[in-house]
Design a protein that fits this description.
It comes from Aurantiacibacter spongiae. This protein is α+β, with helices and mostly antiparallel strands and 735 residues long. It has 25 helices and twelve strands. Strands 2-1-5-4-3 form a five-stranded antiparallel beta sheet. A five-stranded mixed beta sheet has the order 7-9-10-12-11. A hairpin with a 5-residue loop joins strand 1 (375-380) and strand 2 (386-392). Helix 2 (36-62) packs parallel to helix 9, helix 5 runs antiparallel to helix 6 (159-187) and helix 18 (476-539) runs antiparallel to helix 19 (543-566). The longest helix is centred in the last third of the chain and has 64 residues, at 476-539. It is elongated.
Length: 735
């Protein structure tokens, strides 16, 4: 048997770096000469592992981590491993230096393991630990004797095989003992200590578990497989990475928390890589068939695999399955709530002429959460029940005029239940009434879920989602997230509905305001015609009165015609074109309208020209004069006066009426629909102010109760307007 083993050991492949015969050192199987590229990759891997170990060791030895438990021991172990990697890369794994340093690396690892037991002072309480550590160290020290014996008796026939068997046995004993200690280190630690011991325990366990498999294969076979020994550089890199993660991150950050997008992309790349590996292996295997059809089979397989990849990889169903699988197996929660909230806000807040309306965006916001391809929004009808309000990418479903009756809508409003229609179809939801799941919905296989939108416990909508490509059953996390999103959407829809109602109310208010203005103007004309009719009974036979009566009737007709023309201009007085206004002519026309009333008098002044709108000014003055007449009663007087006040034309309307209190002037005088007179509309003062403001003027009021009221209208003089037009920079100085 020894002769057979010796022949097999001599048949092992040699490495260009070997300095010793592999027959004398079966622990190192040699590097497989697959090709120069592979040899270069292996060489670079060992150097990379050495560099990473040295960098981490220096950081541990010089930083504050060196003061911690096992800090210096870990740094020493990394430096020894770096030396071994350099020796393998430069001299080969079968060299005397590499074999010697390999024994030193195991001693350094076992010393680091012993120091880790001191993390929570367990080394002081566990008596068996120290003897086991010393025993494993002694076993590894025997490797130096095995190395010395292999060098001393290399010329002796049969000695190399016997030494190799002893060395492999000692390696196996060491790996088994080391793994037992690693298990006790982690399993016997407290929950808090495990957070810190997790990564170094994983590094040591990975190294010794890999070595155990390698040495077991070597013991049962004829030497160490070349490929497994070459991959040991990767194991060292993995150990360095685990130690770096456990050292560089604080205890609160020890958990590996990749983002969902990173995990999804990494998992996708892993699947693509696995697909490529399988394709290469199968294609390479077909090439070894040795038949005349090998090339044809190989080409056909590659074409078939490529066509399959082009068909399957872009599939939305595959991407949906990947997302569900990654979220289910790699993360504690299915959803990345920050990303979902940002996407939800972006969808709802989208604006612009090209953005879909809010109801459609609401459906999309819910559908994006569950990866649903389409959805519907049902909202309450005035007649009761729910009707279709919007649809998102779901044109094929036929929705009746009354999509859900009153009892179904009441069920969702009272229960706030998110319904999985698949459960309904399979009879799992016995408590859901039939009115909540109409036939047009359950008969459509695409209908998947119904999410109520509640605002202050009132149902403002119901979202129906289509089945996602990667179908699954809704769970508690879906229900919680969809319920919160549903309430948020309900507030948006309720706000939009309130805005629509407010806009409609504002339009009705504008309409009512215009009607109030019309009624006020008609009331003034009716008062003039009533006064004319009373005077006609007394003075109808006088020619002068008949002439005044005809003139008054003509003016009233003109007023009615102008009133109809102004109906569409109320509320937009500021848009009128401004021109020059002769205040004397306007004042005379106003006084002429009230010539039959002896209480109205005009004080003639010099010629004054202002800027404004003559028609609007006359209308404002008529309102104020009429208010003065009504406030003064039968004995009251109204006086009209014009003058110049600085750069403005001043119009004064003074009456001897009952007057107004300061509080009424401040809070109610210029408010529409507030009047101090019984039966008044409260429109005259408000409309007069709006008309004057539209001309660029101001209106002030002075009043005392039981004494009377004086309105002061100020308009820019024509001369001042011309100066402002010629030299606008000096306007403030002139004013």
């Amino acid at each position: 048997m020894r002769s057979v083993l010796r022949e097999e050991l001599h048949a092992l492949p040699r490495s260009p770096h070997h300095v010793a015969d592999p027959a004398r050192d079966p622990l190192a199987g040699g590097r497989a000469v697959i090709g120069p590229v592979w040899n270069l990759l292996v060489y670079c891997a060992y150097l990379l592992a050495a560099g990473a170990a040295i960098a981490l060791a220096l950081w541990l030895a010089t930083g504050r981590q060196a003061k911690g438990i096992a800090g210096r021991a870990t740094a020493a172990a990394l430096l020894v491993n770096a030396a071994w990697a350099v020796a393998v890369a430069t001299a080969g794994e079968a060299s005397l230096a590499a074999r010697t340093i390999l024994a030193c690396t195991n001693l350094a690892w076992i010393w680091m393991l012993y120091r880790l037991f001191g993390h929570d002072e367990r080394d002081k309480h566990l008596g068996p630990i120290r003897p086991v550590v010393f025993a494993l160290a002694f076993v590894e020290l025997l490797q130096f004797a095995m190395i010395a014996a292999s060098v001393r008796y290399q010329a002796l026939a049969g000695a190399d095989v016997l030494i190799a068997r002893f060395a492999l046995t000692l390696r196996l004993l060491f790996c088994v003992g080391g793994l037992v200690l690693v298990h006790n280190l982690y399993a016997g630690a407290s929950q808090q200590a495990r957070e810190a011991l997790r990564w170094p325990a994983a590094a040591l366990g990975g190294v010794w578990l890999y070595d155990l498999n390698v040495y077991t294969i070597a013991y049962l076979g004829a030497g160490t497989p070349a490929l497994l020994w070459q991959l040991r550089a990767g194991i060292l890199l993995l150990a360095v990475a685990l130690l770096a993660v456990g050292t560089l991150r604080s205890k609160s950050d020890l958990r590996f928390r990749p983002s969902r997008s990173f995990a999804f992309q990494s998992f996708s790349l892993l699947l693509i890589g696995a697909y490529l590996v399988v394709m290469v292996v199968v294609a390479q295997g077909l090439s070894y068939l040795g038949t005349g059809y090998a090339n044809v089979l190989q080409t056909g397989f590659v074409l078939l695999a490529s066509a399959l990849a082009l068909t399957v990889l872009p599939s939305k169903r595959l991407r949906g399955w990947l997302r569900v699988t990654v979220a289910k197996n790699l993360f504690q929660h299915r959803y990345d709530y920050r990303a979902e909230w940002l996407r939800f806000t972006d969808t709802i807040g989208r604006a612009g002429p090209e953005a879909p309306p809010l109801p459609e965006r609401a459906v999309q916001a819910v559908a994006d959460i569950t990866d649903s391809p389409a959805g519907l929004l049902l909202t309450p009808r005035e007649e009761g029940g729910l009707a279709l309000a919007a649809r998102w990418q779901w044109t094929g479903i036929d929705v009746p005029a009354r999509a859900l009756d009153m009892s179904g809508a009441r069920y969702f409003e009272q229960s706030q239940f998110i319904l999985d229609l698949d459960d309904t179809r399979k009879g799992r939801t016995q408590t859901v009434p039939a009115s909540a799941t109409p036939a047009w919905l359950t008969e459509d296989a695409r209908a998947w879920a119904m999410i109520p939108l509640l605002h202050y416990e009132r149902l403002v909508g119901l979202v129906v989602l289509a089945r996602p490509l990667a179908a699954r059953r809704l769970d508690w996390e879906d229900f919680d997230l969809l319920r919160v999103v549903g309430r948020q959407l309900a507030s948006y829809l309720a706000e939009a509905s309130s805005q629509d109602a407010l806009g409609e109310a504002q339009r009705f208010d504008e309409f009512n305001r215009r009607m109030a203005f019309v009624m006020h103007d008609i009331k003034n004309l009716a008062s003039q015609l009533s006064l004319l009719a009373k005077n006609a009974e007394k003075h109808a036979e006088k020619p002068e009165f008949r002439a005044d009566m005809i003139l008054t009737l003509r003016n009233s007709t003109d007023k009615l015609t102008g009133l109809l023309a102004r109906l569409n201009r109320y509320g937009a007085h500021s848009g009128r074109a401004k021109g020059l206004v002769d205040l004397s002519k306007v004042m005379r026309r106003v006084a002429r309208q009230f010539r039959t009333n002896a209480s109205v008098s005009l004080v003639e002044q010099e010629h004054i020209c202002a800027t404004g709108d003559a028609e609007a000014l006359e209308q404002a003055l008529v309102h104020l004069v009429q208010n003065g007449i009504e406030a003064g009663g039968a004995t009251g007087q109204v006086v009209l006066t014009t003058s110049i006040d600085g750069g403005h034309a001043l119009i004064e309307i003074a009456d001897t009426g009952a007057g107004m209190s300061p509080e009424f002037i401040r809070t109610r005088l210029f408010k529409p629909f507030h009047s101090s007179k019984p039966g008044g509309f409260g429109i005259g003062a408000f409309e007069a102010r709006e008309l004057v403001r539209g001309m660029g003027g101001t209106i002030d009021v002075e009043s005392r109760e039981a004494l009377g009221t004086r309105f002061l209208i100020r308009l820019p003089l024509a001369e001042m307007a011309a100066i402002r037009t010629r030299n606008p920079e000096k306007t403030s100085e002139i004013a």
